[in-house]
């Protein structure tokens, strides 16, 4: 994020921060999972980009508010958490499907960070490993249950 003003000062017309685009993709996929119409998702993504990612910037002062309309009013309150798989994680070595995370907890794995690589929406055959950082979405109780299933421990 710090590089945006510097690159603009040096003459760049447009700077697209990778971490913001990854966040937008995750946001869009969560909305699609909850059957938000595609045109509504595209409108929201356009608003985020038009505001130069202000909705995603931490501590940026007053942020423009995204207007969520249509079917979003019925969407349950969702949280996104990072879950780190330690050496003793019971799911290390299992595929996403093997964990049965969705059916057991209701939570979803949106992305996996392994080392320096990020994988958005891993498929059911993706094999989890110790050290993976999972981006999990769900309601608070679903996240708590997912954390316990994935790590074998209560969330801190």
Give me some keywords for this one:
6 helices; four-stranded antiparallel beta sheet; Alpha-Beta Plaits; 4 strands; 156 residues; 37% helix
Any overview of this molecule?
The protein has a 4-stranded antiparallel beta sheet, sandwiched between helices. It is globular, with a radius of gyration of 17 Å. The protein is α+β, with helices and mostly antiparallel strands and 156 residues long. A hairpin with a 2-residue loop joins strand 2 and strand 3. It folds into 2 domains: 3-74, no CATH class; 79-151, 2-Layer Sandwich (Alpha-Beta Plaits). The chain has helices spanning 3-9, 18-33, 38-50, 96-99, 101-105, 140-151; strands at residues 79-84, 108-114, 117-120, 133-138. Helix 2 (18-33) runs antiparallel to helix 3 (38-50). Helices cover 37% and strands 15% of the residues. It is built from 6 helices and 4 strands.
Give the helices and strands, then pairings.
Layout: H1 3-9, H2 18-33, H3 38-50, E1 79-84, H4 96-99, H5 101-105, E2 108-114, E3 117-120, E4 133-138, H6 140-151
Antiparallel strand pairs: 1-4, 2-3, 2-4
Percent in strands: 5-15%
Topology order in helix (H) and strand (E) letters: HHHEHHEEEH
Backbone CA Rg:
17 Å
Strand tally: 4
- The rough form would be described as globular
Query: How many helix segments?
Result: 6
Under the CATH scheme, the architecture of the largest domain is 2-Layer Sandwich
CATH topology term of the largest domain: Alpha-Beta Plaits
Mean pLDDT: 81
Strand order of the largest sheet: 1-4-2-3
Strand count, sense and closure of the main sheet?
A: 4 strands, antiparallel
Distance between the termini: 29 Å
Name of the CATH first level of the largest domain: Alpha Beta
Based on secondary structure, the structural category is alpha+beta
Oligomer: single chain
Q: Roughly how much helix do the residues carry, as a percent range?
A: 25-40%
In the CATH hierarchy, what is the superfamily of the largest domain?
Answer: Regulator of K+ conductance, C-terminal domain
- Residue windows where pLDDT falls under 50 for at least 5 positions: 60-64
């Amino acid at each position: 994020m710090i590089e945006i003003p510097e690159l603009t000062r040096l003459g760049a017309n447009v700077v697209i921060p990778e971490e913001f685009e990854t966040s937008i993709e995750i946001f869009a996929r969560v909305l699609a999972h909850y059957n938000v119409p595609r045109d509504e998702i595209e409108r929201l993504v356009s608003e985020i980009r038009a505001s130069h990612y202000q909705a995603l910037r931490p501590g940026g002062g007053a942020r423009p508010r995204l207007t969520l309309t249509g079917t979003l009013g019925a969407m349950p309150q969702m949280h996104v958490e990072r879950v780190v798989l330690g050496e003793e994680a019971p799911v290390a070595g299992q595929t996403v499907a093997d964990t049965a995370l969705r059916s057991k907890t209701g939570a979803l794995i949106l992305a996996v960070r392994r080392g320096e690589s990020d994988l958005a929406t891993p498929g059911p055959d993706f094999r989890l490993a110790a050290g993976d950082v999972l981006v999990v979405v769900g309601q608070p109780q679903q996240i708590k249950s997912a954390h316990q299933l994935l790590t074998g421990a209560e969330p801190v």
